[in-house]
Amino acid sequence: MKKFLKKIWDGVKNIYHKLIGGTQKYVPIAINIVEAVKSVMATPVDDILAEIIKKSIPGGADDVLIDNIKNTVEKYIPLILIELQATEIISNIEDPKEQLKAIFDRIKVSSNETQNILWHGLASLLIEKLSDGRISWSDAVALSEYYFTNLYKPINK
Predict the structure, then answer these.
(1) Which of 52, 56, 137, 138 could form a disulfide with 32 if both were Cys (CB 3.0 to 4.6 A apart)?
(2) Domain boundaries, the chain
(3) Which residues lie below 8 Å from residue 142, measured CB to CB, with a gap of 6+?
């Protein structure tokens, strides 16, 4: 199992190193944005989006990059978080069958981005839990992405 996971991880590393042009620079920025969101949640600030952007850019950055990050953060973070807040309403439904129906109805009208987050996260969580802790969350994320992209998707086109 370890050899198999190492092969997959090496594949993920190769993909990362083969990213073209300026694409590779967005990977650490995306991670920094998530960490900035977590940081901002822990400390109240006046301008939340400005604080997220400031914390996400390592060192100096050109104006085009800053504008791109700002536009992406302004568009997607509120969109995703608003869609995810529907869980509060659904959690008040007492009948589990009705609750599940409401969840599915909510997913159906969610943006593609929110659905992608949900499906990717759910697959990763299931892999992690079904392995009884033998597969870490990080490896589960890589495994779910690898399997879906390279094995499941080509067969089910």
Answers:
(1) 56
(2) 19-84
(3) 8, 9, 12
Residue identified by tokens 């600030």 is: 45
Written as tens digits, the pLDDT of the chain (157 aa) is 677 777 777 777 666 666 555 555 666 666 677 677 777 777 766 667 677 777 666 665 666 777 777 787 778 778 777 776 777 778 888 888 888 888 888 888 888 888 888 888 888 888 888 887 778 888 888 888 888 887 777 777 7
Residues sharing a CB contact under 8 Å with residue 123, sequence separation 6 or more, in sequence order: 140, 144, 148
Q: Judge whether 83 and 114 are in contact, CB under 8 Å.
A: yes
- C-alpha–C-alpha distance, residues 24 and 29, integer Å: 9
> SS3 of 95, please?
coil
* The residue type at 108: K
Q: What are phi and psi of 91, to 5 degrees?
A: -65, -20
Q: Structure tokens of 86?
A: 């529907």
CA dist., res. 117 & res. 89, Å (int):
20
Q: Is-contact 147 5, C-beta < 8 A? A: no
